[in-house]
Amino acid sequence: MKYDYLIVGAGFAGSVMAERLASQLNKKVLVVEKRNHIAGNAFDEYDEHGILVHRYGPHIFHTNSKEVFDYLSQFTQWVPYEHKVLAKIGDELYPIPINRLTINKLYNLNLKTDEEVKNYFESVKEKRFPILNSEDIIVNQVGKDLFEKFFKHYTKKQWNLEPNELSPSVCGRIPVRTNDDCRYFTDKYQFIPKDGYTKMFEKILNHKNIEVILNTDYKSIINTMKFDKMIYTGPIDYFFDYKFGKLPYRSIRFEFRNLPQAQFQETAQINYVDNLVEFTRVIEHKLLSQQNSGTTTISFEYPQKEGEPFYPVPTEENRNKYLQYKKEADKNNQIIFCGRLAEYQYYNMDQVVANTLKIFENEVK
Ligand code: FAD
Ligand code: UDP
């Protein structure tokens, strides 16, 4: 059997590309996935207690792109869901992103307007220019104390780097607010797939021209398969046998626990922003899917170096190393590198879908 395309990886990048190639260009596609399931890091499944859990951390779909939302809506119905996160310091919980309520509770103030909060930030922030790293971007907005309370330790635990060693884009993902909006995201579309992500991926990949093989590293079959072109969504350094050295990816150990109680915590996610515990956050999964059940499943996230590569690590040194790989990748027009691992970019799901659709239109079609 000869395929038009070999696609490495059944996450968003690989699956969306497979769907486009099969449905729009009638191409025969083989998707090779090294794990024992589709959906990449968005994989979810029911645990033994009947609770839908996100095996690789909480995945909340949020986007401002109508195109991305409409595209995925072909494969799933949605449940509206606006993510809220609380940050735990000692025994107290505070809204994160930092907002008016955070400031009032933390400093026992009674700021009533956006203007008053703006003035408060003005009085405590430290001017940093240029903004070179993740410490600068936060201190420049809210000053040292809030930075140290909410960002310093969490960031160190998550990345094993100080914020001043990381690109401003890392902590810059988190806005600072002067109002009392406690939502984590403010995008126009915020949803969870009604029957879960894995079911959505089953529909994306359900096409007569698409074949999926699981539990298979593409390197173990590549010499026996016949295909014209390749889409690669795995780690780019692995593809090139680490010829320019290893790119660091941050991993996480997830510890799941089922508890004999209806609810464990106030919100689906609580960030442990101090350095008293090693884990970064606790997720209560039924609060994401809004499931009713007598018990509840929670997961603790322990960041680590080894393991499944989840996060590219945005430092200048790593960016330069990635660019060496990219230069090599650009020489071969039979292979397209796309997705979070292949482009070494800290992408959200909607960004991966948007990019994959764009690559399909501009480079494949
Ligand atoms: P992946 O999902 O990583 O897919 C790549 C696939 O390639 C994997 O399945 C991998 O097993 C496979 N593969 C790798 N190497 C090989 C090989 N050699 N042979 C065969 N197969 C291979 N995004 C959001 O928008 N909202 C969120 O709330 C959110 N939360 C997140 C929480 C966590 C803890 C993490 C880690 C990520 C989160 N994300 C979130 C980001 C989201 O997971 C990614 O944007 C998205 O999954 C990237 O899709 P991808 O296809 O590029 O990569
Ligand atoms: N961050 C932090 N404290 C928080 C939340 C986030 O220091 O309470 C920093 C941390 O460095 C984290 C980054 O901001 O890795 C991005 O946070 P986000 O919640 O977007 O991380 P993700 O969900 O992608 O793991």
Q: Which outline best applies? A: globular
Q: Which small-molecule ligands are present, each listed once?
A: flavin-adenine dinucleotide, uridine-5'-diphosphate
What fraction of the residues are assigned to beta strands by DSSP?
A: 15-25%
* Total count of strands: 17
Task: Give the termini distance in whole angstroms.
Answer: 23 Å
How many helices in DSSP terms?
A: 11
From the structure above, extract its key features.
365 residues, alpha/beta, 17 strands, 32% helix, binds flavin-adenine dinucleotide, binds uridine-5'-diphosphate
Describe this structure in words.
By secondary structure, this protein is α/β, with parallel strands linked by helices. 32% of the residues lie in helices and 22% in strands. The protein is built from eleven helices and 17 strands. The chain has a seven-stranded mixed β-sheet. The longest helix has 26 residues, at 134-159. It is globular and about 70 Å long.
Care to give the gist of this entry?
The chain is of the alpha/beta class.
